Amino acid sequence: METWQKLLNTIIETLTNGDSRFSAGEQALFAVVGTALIWFAIKILLAIIEKRAGQYGLFKDDRQIFQAMRKASQRLTLLVAGTYLIRILNLTFFENIFHALMILLLAGPLVSFSVLLLRYLEKGVADRTVNKIDDILFDLLNKFAGAIIYITASILALDTLGINVMPFVAGAGVMGVALGFAAKDTLSNLIAGVLLIIDRPFEVGDRIEVWRAPAGSATWGDVIGIGLRATKIRTTDNIVIIIPNNEIMTRDIVNYTIINTKIRVRVNVGIAYDADLALAKQTVLGVAGEIDWIAREPAPKVVVRSFGESSVELQLRVWIPDARRRMDTISEVTDRIKERFDEQGIEIPYPKRDITIKQK
């Protein structure tokens, strides 16, 4: 704050050390005419730069940067000229008010520059990355950058007017604590949202397990949005479930696609104790080989898991390249195994009870 004031004072002192033969009114007239000429020259210079530099890089894609440059140049010129006029006309009582107003006006071009810079970084960084978390981060920066700049400008303007801003800062702190207690759940979700963005347990497009799905509906879905307060998940039944971030951070997250989309699927099959075990295994492997989307490497495998009450429990283990076809795989394999077992005479047992009646 003090640095720019010293620089401004140096410029004004240099300008006011002119020829004293001119009256204050004449100097003011010269200042107005000179300001107009300087602004006209800056406008022409910026037009030339825009025409030549508009063929390259950032300037070619976004011409709004020159509009921001014009506004910034115009207001800086107005700041110097206004301060000069105030001092030569001896209107020093109005100087601090004028400076405070100019600080607020200069915040506008600064916001424009920040938005353009973030847009350039987003195109150069976020659009080249595979994950979508960078897009969310830049979206948050775009939303809050303007507010931060205007709040800072307001504090500087109040300080220029000689108003002690510390009581306002202290009051804002107390109010922030009170609001924190009143909205602790919301703040907890906001903090959890930031941690989700940093930790990245999942990204937009990942398929994860959903523990809050309605009864009888699909229990997994794709992440379609990660916000500061909540995360949106669309299940395979096309139902969108919105889960608060705070709840997500306290649960185990099952992510099927965080490494890649290839997963292993297990299909349980039960056969009767008197069935031909080798034939059953061969039949199950034959079914796996018929389905085109089941990977050949690693090869499908059939293992005996356990002996049940009325059946020998087998399990088919296959790899599929797309995790989203998990349920399709289980359904298709189960249907075909039933058909093949019926053809081969392999019994799929059901619970049986032997009842012995003793008569006395």
Detailed description of the structure:
The protein is α+β, with helices and mostly antiparallel strands and 360 residues long. It has three domains: 2-177, no CATH class; 202-249, SH3 type barrels (Roll); 263-344, Alpha-Beta Plaits (2-Layer Sandwich), CATH 3.30.70. Helix content is 57%, strand content 13%. The chain is built from eleven helices and seven strands. A four-stranded antiparallel β-sheet has the order 1-2-3-4. Strands 5-7-6 form a three-stranded antiparallel β-sheet, with helices on one face. A hairpin with a 3-residue loop joins strand 2 and strand 3 (230-235). Helix 1 (2-16) packs across helix 4 (64-88), helix 2 runs antiparallel to helix 4 (64-88) and helix 5 (95-124) runs antiparallel to helix 6 (133-160). The longest helix is centred in the first third of the chain and has 30 residues, at 24-53. The mean pLDDT is 78.
- Measured as a percent range, the helix fraction is 55-70%
Rg is: 36 Å
Q: Give the biggest sheet.
A: 4 strands, antiparallel
Number of helices: 11
Distance between the termini: 109 Å
Number of domains: 3
Order of SSEs: HHHHHHHHEEEEHEHEEH
Total beta-strand segments: 7
Hey, roughly how much beta strand do the residues contain?
5-15%
What general form does the structure show? elongated
Content-based structural category: alpha+beta
Oligomeric state as shown: single chain
Instruction: Write down the overall mean pLDDT.
Output: 78
- Unreliable stretches: none
Strand order of the largest sheet: 1-2-3-4
